Write a sequence for this structure.
């Protein structure tokens, strides 16, 4: 067959990339064609995304295709973070830059919202975990602070849908990104009028929801001319980056645990229906949209952020250590001495994390880690214990033991954490591919183009295309069980 070429635009909170995926009928290969920083801007007291700059960089990636051997790309797909959105006026123009989910406007909003709509009832409809930056709380804050802007808005589009609109002129909302909003009825897979009415949110600004893999359209004529005249089709892939990453999980069976590992560790399983119960509400699990009608029953865990910020602190102190060096230091440190709760709020903000870890261990009566290796070991084994807590809760709620864990994303390069996860959870851990988000984006495009049959075949192709590393529990189960009992007292 003729090689199928596709362009994945993979946008993260700090950087973005254009990646050309090539499918030769058996394997997928990836080649980066553009990389750029994503620099949010604080202006007039509000933290926003520079969305037009992002769009400029996307066009540069498309133009790079036009000026190379990749001018024959068949399609383009965009994946981004969730929850954030832009508003369009009646003339179709952007009214304001999308506000960043880390902006402070939503502080305290969930607690106020629950006075109008009880938390239990909201969870019963949406199945969404409560995070104060969810779209629902952003809209409540916007209505409170700037009702005039909301009043003149004709359309609301989430970031990937907004960028697709800039490319094609088509307004539509992709399901996986919409499911991050806490405004969807999980059972009907559509907007909840009950929730919108309760908070006085304008239902008319929300566009029709399409399934991941739906065609969005061809490039607008002006965009096509600016980008070198090529004519790919824009596909609404699984637009939430985690949804794309899960598409690329090369699972060995239908039942598995996945971890999308990076700054965040998002951990969960794939289900055929939403899992909404008193237990899932208590444990604050979420039900977000997946590919082929699936649900991502999952939980957000603070991931490698704690290690990344610790490294930044050591660099500020004049020690320029790479992650590889730090991992080796962690391997050499004595195991299972002390733990933190990675999700404790004190570890979620920038600053001197190593000092906070020492203070935390001192306050909780544990051995205080002093060296860098001891700090790294503490962080890594604490994350592994958080994984164990999460997987045990999934087993409990689903009534069966999940056989294995698949870790995808940049965090797969931390082999210490992968081995510790296998030890803590007592099950095999399979890691890879690193570029899971871009691969899931590409795979969804290949399915939409008719060259890959379905999700199952896409995962087979990905498993054949990239090396998967295996980690198995070491023979020290009793030590880990005893340490886990100590860890549970911290959370």
């Amino acid at each position: 067959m003729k090689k199928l070429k596709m362009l994945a635009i993979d946008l993260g909170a700090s950087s973005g990339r254009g990646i050309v995926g090539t499918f030769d009928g058996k394997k997928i290969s990836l080649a980066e064609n553009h990389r750029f920083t994503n620099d949010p801007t604080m202006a007039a007291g509000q933290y926003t995304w520079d969305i037009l700059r992002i769009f400029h960089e996307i066009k540069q990636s498309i133009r790079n295709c036009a000026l190379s051997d990749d001018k024959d790309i068949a399609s383009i797909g965009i994946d981004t973070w969730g929850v954030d959105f832009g508003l369009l006026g009646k003339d179709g123009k952007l009214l304001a830059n999308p506000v960043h989910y880390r902006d402070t406007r939503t502080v305290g909003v969930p607690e106020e919202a629950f006075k109008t709509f009880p938390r239990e009832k909201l969870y019963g409809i949406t199945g969404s975990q409560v995070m104060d930056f969810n779209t629902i709380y952003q809209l409540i804050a916007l209505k409170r602070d700037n009702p005039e802007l909301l009043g003149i808005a004709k359309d609301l589009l989430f970031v990937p849908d907004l960028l697709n609109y800039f490319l094609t002129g088509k307004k539509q909302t992709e399901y996986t990104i919409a499911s991050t909003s806490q405004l969807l009825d999980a059972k009907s897979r559509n907007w909840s009028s009950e929730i919108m009415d309760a908070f006085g949110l304008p239902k008319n600004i929300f566009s029709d929801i399409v399934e991941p893999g739906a065609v969005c359209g061809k490039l607008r004529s002006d965009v096509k001319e600016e980008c070198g005249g090529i004519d790919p089709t824009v596909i609404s892939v699984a637009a939430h980056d985690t949804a794309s990453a899960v598409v690329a999980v090369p699972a060995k069976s239908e039942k598995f645990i996945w971890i999308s590992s990076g700054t965040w560790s998002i951990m969960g399983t794939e289900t055929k229906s939403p899992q909404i119960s008193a237990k899932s509400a208590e444990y604050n699990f979420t039900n977000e949209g997946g590919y082929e009608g699936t649900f991502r029953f999952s939980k957000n865990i603070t991931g490698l952020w704690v290690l990344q910020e610790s490294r930044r602190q050591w660099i500020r102190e004049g020690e320029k250590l790479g992650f590889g060096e730090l991992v080796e230091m962690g391997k050499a440190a004595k195991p299972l001495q002390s733990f933190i709760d990675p999700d404790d709020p004190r570890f979620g903000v920038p600053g001197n994390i190593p000092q906070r870890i020492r203070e935390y261990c001192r306050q909780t009566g544990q051995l205080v880690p002093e060296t860098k290796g001891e700090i790294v070991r503490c962080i890594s084994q604490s994350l592994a214990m958080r994984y164990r807590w999460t997987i045990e809760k999934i087993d409990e709620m689903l009534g069966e033991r999940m056989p294995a864990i698949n870790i995808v994303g940049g965090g797969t390069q931390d082999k210490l954490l992968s081995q510790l996860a296998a030890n803590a959870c007592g099950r095999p851990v399979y890691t890879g591919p690193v570029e899971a988000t871009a691969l899931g984006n590409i795979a969804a495009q290949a399915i939409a183009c008719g060259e890959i049959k379905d999700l199952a075949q896409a995962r087979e192709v990905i498993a054949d295309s990239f090396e998967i590393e295996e980690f198995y529990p070491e023979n020290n189960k009793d030590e880990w069980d005893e340490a886990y009992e100590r860890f549970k007292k911290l959370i």
About this structure: The first strand starts at residue 4 and ends at 11.
